[in-house]
């Protein structure tokens, strides 16, 4: 393909993909299937790899991330990012209204009310319609440049097409993890034995500062915009600015309202006090802004916050109820979670009967006694949480909670590893919830995707002694399944068909499904790609594992331990005999050129613009070879930062050419 033809096609694909992205994320509509969409994106990715210079600054391929940032550059805000004063009662709000009225010396004014989104504030700079910078709040004066991470947010326009945009403007808003995404993320972490995150806000904040933008892309952040700044915006009120932002394609929460008086503001606050729980993100109050920009200017700022705006914070609803008892749940990984069994109470929209107490430390911290009256709140507005004991109501006869020392399910003696908060049941192969949990993990969509089986079926199969490990599923007969409650010929066949079909699931799904601790889907994908076959992975040493992308000491150790266990090896062998996929069918990248033909590379260290396996793909795609150790026959050592000195010395001694990332890029251009 000629460069001109490539340019034309790249432009066309970029337009098409942007159009479909906008439809999907901002208008909840689709015109093409996911498959067709992925194909467009894939074609664009390939063309960009072949013609890196033609990649457009608003290329939608940036949505999937891929760049690594080692250190975020510090950027001074053109307009400082201030905070807001807080109020907690109608009286305090009426005082604020009094100060506004006084400041405006009798002029009429209006308010604009928005919800206060509980996320991470971000400032976006657009130049000639292009998103050029995204900066965190930092200390208000200077923040971090997190542009590559923010560009992965699908609802955010990378380029504005509208005609009436100023050459430069700034938009501010709140980046957040939708409640559902947060819940799902925690479920996935629990599933692989990682500790869960405490709340969506901190998780969003951590995500914005992750080094690998591809990981950020997977987290599915979203963003609401609520503030337009700049010199040439041609708006006179905040509501006009918000309308402009909407028209320019920004994601603005539709929950705003213009209010003519402080009474209307108070009504708005009341309306949303309950209704806000139905929103897809967490909110912790209302922001009230004077609508006229001229009046805003007149009122001005104090050192910390504007005089023309204020936040009203909802009280975290708290209620006292009786602690009837404590139960203990055992998860797939053996982690034990204590749960408070409460006298049912109605709180923030739902009846609460139970609340997680996390671990023994938390019970000690709260000094819980059975029969205590405890205060319950909804942490992050969703998950009920015990926040303290109502000591005034404590009865003299209550007994201190003593943490169990034996597994409530299998009676094994619990263990608690040095430095870990959780107790574990070590009876991995004999403890019912651990066994059932492993099979449930195995059949889930991201693993073997056997949706003809469910939790209840797994429970019964286990109780009948038919399934003790995932591999047992592949040796079930129709007669076995007909022993299950209410299962007739047709559904038994359906289950068998589902089990058979799952044999076609790719190696990375199998690897995730067998449930090696800390090996989540991403790591399973990287391991499958790196080691290609189960046999290679099985024989990999701790050191060899550390060479794989995304694999640190904890994961490497866990993989080594897994394959040291004879039962695990037998289980894998049975899965092999059943005909599951144990070789990666991820294709080698197609050759895009042969500029690196017959050249061999060792890649070492950390790079500014690429992940190591991306570099590997690029080298292979241009006809080169990648090896792991430096020898006299090697052509190039591609050196990033923090490369081990031994490699560098060896390369220098053997006369191997050491090149940097930019020299490599030059090499590619021929
Ligand atoms: S306006 C000059 N509107 O709350 C102040 N802020 O406590 C401009 N926030 O840093 C901020 N929702 O991160 C504004 N609808 C909203 C908001 C909002 C959440 C955050 C924002 C700000 C913090 C102040």
Task: Provide a compact summary of the structure.
With 670 residues, this protein is α+β, with helices and mostly antiparallel strands. The chain has 24 helices and 23 strands.
Any overview of this molecule?
With 670 residues, the protein is an alpha+beta fold. The protein folds into six domains: 62 residues, Helix hairpin bin (Helix Hairpins); 238 residues, DNA ligase/mRNA capping enzyme (D-amino Acid Aminotransferase, Chain A, domain 1), CATH 3.30.470.30; 82 residues, Beta Barrel (OB fold (Dihydrolipoamide Acetyltransferase, E2P)); 73 residues, DNA polymerase, domain 1; 72 residues, DNA polymerase, domain 1 (Orthogonal Bundle), CATH 1.10.150.20; 69 residues, 3-Layer(aba) Sandwich (Rossmann fold). The protein is built from 24 helices and 23 strands. The strands form six sheets. Strands 12, 13, 14, 16, 17 and 19 form a six-stranded antiparallel sheet that branches. Strands 2-11-10-3-9 form a five-stranded mixed sheet. A hairpin with a 3-residue loop joins strand 16 and strand 17. Helix 1 runs antiparallel to helix 2, helix 12 crosses helix 13 and helix 16 crosses helix 17. The radius of gyration is 29 Å and the shape is globular. The model has no long low-confidence stretch (mean pLDDT 91). The site of 2-(butylsulfanyl)adenosine has 14 residues, from strand 3, strand 8 and strand 11.
């Amino acid at each position: 393909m000629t460069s001109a033809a490539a340019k034309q096609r790249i432009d066309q694909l970029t337009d098409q993909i942007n159009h479909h992205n906008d439809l999907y994320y901002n208008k909840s509509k689709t015109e093409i299937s996911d498959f067709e969409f992925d194909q467009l994106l894939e074609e664009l990715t390939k063309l960009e790899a072949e013609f890196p210079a033609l990649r457009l600054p608003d290329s939608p391929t940036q949505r999937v991330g891929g760049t690594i940032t080692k250190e975020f550059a510090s950027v001074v805000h053109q307009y400082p990012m201030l905070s807001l004063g807080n109020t907690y009662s109608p009286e305090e709000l009426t005082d604020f209204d009094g100060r506004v009225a006084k400041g405006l010396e009798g002029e009429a004014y209006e308010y604009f009310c928005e919800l206060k989104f509980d996320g991470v504030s971000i400032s976006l700079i657009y130049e000639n319609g292009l998103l050029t910078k995204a900066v965190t709040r930092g200390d208000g004066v200077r923040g971090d440049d997190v542009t590559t991470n923010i560009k992965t947010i699908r609802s955010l326009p990378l380029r504005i097409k509208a005609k009436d945009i100023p050459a430069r403007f700034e938009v501010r808003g709140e980046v957040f993890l939708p409640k559902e995404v947060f819940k799902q993320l925690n479920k996935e972490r629990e599933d692989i034995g990682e500790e869960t995150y405490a709340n969506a806000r901190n998780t969003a904040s951590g995500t914005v500062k992750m080094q690998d933008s591809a990981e950020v892309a997977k987290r599915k952040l979203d963003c609401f915009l609520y503030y337009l700044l700049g010199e040439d915006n041609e708006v006179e009120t905040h509501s006009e600015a918000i309308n402009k932002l909407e028209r320019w394609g920004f994601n603005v929460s539709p929950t705003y309202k213009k209010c003519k008086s402080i009474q209307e503001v108070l009504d708005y606050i009341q309306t949303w006090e309950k209704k806000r729980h139905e929103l897809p993100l967490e909110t912790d109050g209302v922001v009230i802004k004077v609508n006229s920009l001229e009046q805003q200017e007149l009122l001005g700022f104090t050192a910390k916050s504007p005089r023309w705006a204020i936040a009203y914070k909802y009280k975290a609803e708290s209620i006292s109820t009786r602690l009837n008892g404590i139960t203990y749940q055992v998860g797939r990984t053996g982690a034990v979670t204590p749960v408070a069994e409460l006298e049912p109470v109605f709180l923030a929209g739902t009846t609460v009967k139970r609340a997680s107490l996390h671990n023994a430390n938390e019970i000690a911290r709260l000094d819980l006694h059975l029969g205590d009256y405890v205060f319950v709140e909804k942490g992050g507005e969703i998950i009920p949480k015990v926040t303290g004991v109502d000591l005034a109501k404590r009865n003299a006869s209550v007994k201190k909670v003593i943490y169990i020392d034996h597994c409530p399910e299998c009676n094994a003696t619990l263990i608690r590893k040095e430095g870990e908060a959780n107790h574990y049941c070590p009876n991995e192969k004999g403890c019912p919830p651990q066994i059932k949990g492993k099979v449930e993990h195995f059949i889930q969509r991201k693993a073997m995707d056997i949706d003809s089986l469910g939790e209840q079926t797994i429970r019964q199969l286990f109780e009948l002694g038919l399934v003790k490990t995932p591999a047992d599923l592949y040796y079930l007969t129709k007669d076995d399944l007909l022993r299950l409650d209410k299962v007739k010929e047709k559904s038994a066949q359906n289950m068998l068909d589902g089990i058979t079909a799952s044999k076609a699931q790719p190696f990375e799904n199998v690897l995730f499904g067998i449930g090696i601790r800390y090996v989540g889907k991403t790591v399973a994908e990287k391991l499958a790609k790196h080691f290609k076959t189960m046999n290679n992975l099985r024989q990999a040493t701790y050191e060899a594992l550390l060479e794989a992308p995304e694999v640190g000491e904890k994961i490497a150790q866990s993989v080594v331990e897994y394959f040291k266990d004879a039962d695990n090896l037998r289980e894998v062998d049975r899965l092999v005999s059943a005909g599951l996929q144990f070789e990666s069918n991820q294709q080698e990248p197609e050759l895009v050129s042969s500029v690196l033909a017959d050249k061999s590379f060792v890649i070492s260290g950390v790079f500014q613009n690429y992940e190591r396996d991306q570099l590997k793909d690029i080298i292979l795609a241009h006809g080169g070879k990648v090896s792991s150790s430096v020898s006299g026959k090697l052509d190039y050592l591609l050196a990033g930062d923090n490369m081990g000195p031994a490699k560098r010395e060896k390369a220098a001694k053997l006369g191997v050419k050491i090149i940097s990332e930019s020299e490599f890029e030059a090499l590619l251009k021929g």
